[in-house]
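Hi everyone, sorry if this is the wrong subforum. Our group has a chain we'd like a structural model of before ordering constructs, and none of us has done structure prediction before. Sequence below.
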Amino acid sequence: MKKIIHYIKKIFLDNRNNESSQKVYYQDKCKTINISTINYGEILKDKRILITGGSTGIGFSIAKKCIQEGALVVITGRNENKLSQAKEEINSQLLKTLVWDITKVSYIEDGIAKAIELLEGEIDVLVNNAGVNSGVQFPDVTEEMWDEMYATNSKGLFFLTQSLCNQWMKEEKNKFKKVINISSQGGFVGATYPYRMTKWDVAGLTQGLGIKLAPFGIIVNGIAPGIVATNMQPNCKDQKENVYYPRNPLERFALPEEIAELAIFLISDASNFIVGQTIVCDGGYSLK
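Answer:
Right subforum, don't worry. Here is the predicted structure as C-alpha cells:
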C-alpha cells in the first residue's frame, strides 16, 4: 500500500448541488470522493421522531437531516452539555432534547411519556442509535465491560423498543410507525467481543421484529455502518478532510452525513415495502 500524505490540498464545496468533493493525495495519484445529499422537500413533514444518542456522530446527523426534511425531533443522551451543544448547532425550534440514560429500564415508560410531551404528540419513528464501545477485545474482556456494553447496545434498545411498540400495537393503524435500528458491520462478520456481539443482537432483533410487527403497521429496519468519522473512531476524525482508510475496498471511511441519507430514506414513506432488513453501508468491508 502506497503511503498517503496526511493532508488535503483542496476541498471543493458546491452548495447549489449539495455536493462536496474531497481529494485524497497519494505519492503518485489523486483520488476524488464525491458525496451528495438529497433534498426531498420536507418528506418527513410533521413526523415526530425520537432518536437515542443524538447529541453527536450518526445520531446528530440523522437528527439534523430529519429537521431539514420537516420532522419534529427529540434527541436523547446522558450528557446535558452535549445535548445543549447539539441544540445550539442545529438551531431549530423543531428540535427538543431529553437527558435520558436508556440503560435505566425502570425509567423507560417515563422517558417515552416525556418525549411525547416534548413532541406535543405521539411518536411516529424510533431511531435506536445510542451505543458504546470500549475497544477491549477477547481475551481481555471483563464482566463489567460486558455488562456496560450490553446494557446500552442491547438491553436498553430492546426494552425501549418493546415499550414503545407495545403502545403502538394498541393504536389504530391509520399510518405506519417505524423503528430504525443502528447496528454495525460488526454484526455481519465474526464476533469475539461484546460490541460486535451486541450488534449481532440488533441485526437479529431487526429481522425478528420486522416479521412480528408488520401486521400491526410497524415497520422495522436497520442500518449497519462501517467505519464512520465519529467519536467512536477518533483516528478517522483526526484526519479531518482526509477520508483515506485502507481496510475496505473503497479505501476510505464514511461520513455520518452519508449514514443519515440512508436513514432518511428508511424513515420516510418512500421505503414502506422494506421490512426487517439491515442495510450494510461499510464500503465493502464485510464482503472481504
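For your construct planning: The domain at 40-287 is CATH 3.40.50.720 (Rossmann fold). Residues 1-17, 24-30 have pLDDT under 50 and may be disordered.
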